[in-house]
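Task 17 of the worksheet. Students: predict the tertiary structure of the chain below and write it out as structure tokens. Keep your answer in the requested format; marks are given for formatting as well as content.
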Amino acid sequence: MAIAKAERLMNLALCLLGTRRPLSKRELRESIEAYLEAGSDDSFNRMFERDKDDLRELGLVIETVENLDGEVGYLARRDSNRLPPITLDAEEAAALGLAAKVWQQARLAGAASGALQKLRAAGLPEGVDPYEAHGALEPRIPVHEAAFEPLMLACRDRRPVLFDYRKASAARPEPRHVEPWALECWRGHWYLAGFDRDRGAERVFRLSRITGKVRSRGTGFTAPVPDVVTVRETVAGWAGEIADRTALIRLRSGAGYPLRAKATGVRELGDGWDELEIPYGHGLDAWLVEFGPDVVVLEPAELRADVVDRLRAVAKG
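Model answer:
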């Protein structure tokens, strides 16, 4: 169905771009096979209006013109749908080449390579190699999660999705019905921000905790998409990066070096244990659980209770 719609949109765009005069809906229906196969006039009209809106959303400027007889026609003038010449200096071309090298997996690698080839044909500065190394460090954004590609396409197409998600504190995954907004990589992990329909609020999901396939749902979005989606700020807050309190923990000597790096105070207790003061924010309990028996939470009491609950969930399998 996706291929059929893409072909139909392409045929409609070619008709609108290739005509010298406005074409009526009747003429467009006679020119495009998919419209001829529409069962009724109402079915065709709904299909045509959706396609016209989709093309406009993609950036095609479609004019509506009424002739002397009152008949409405449509066309897309080439001068209104032509990008201005692209000019890049050496530094700009190098920046685009470096950005293209970031993507090594999923569909984005091929898209980035194709974009650079088009820029070369459009006049990329001679002697500039976008793939030339620009330092000892080379950026990479790994994409290991199978959910990345379907979620990327769902974000682009504004399609709700359904997937099974396992929270860090849960023994089993639960179904989540989400309107996806944006994907972002933060500290080596991919996250999805969107509107969780079941909970009626914005949520952020770590892709590595999505199990099974991501299924699309045909219905449109029910919640407005914010102008700015702050995935990193939200994840940072949930991961304890934004901390407004202090927690006191007991840590086994020689263990938990990431915790020691964040500690604001360390005191040796003897018998193979140290006492640490660390910043306390949302999500610290999930991080402490990763250190297993090497960590004992002393205070506050609510943090200790959260860690115990998570350990019990893990023990239950």
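Marker's comment: Residues 193 and 204 are 4 Å apart (CA to CA). The longest strand covers residues 174-186.
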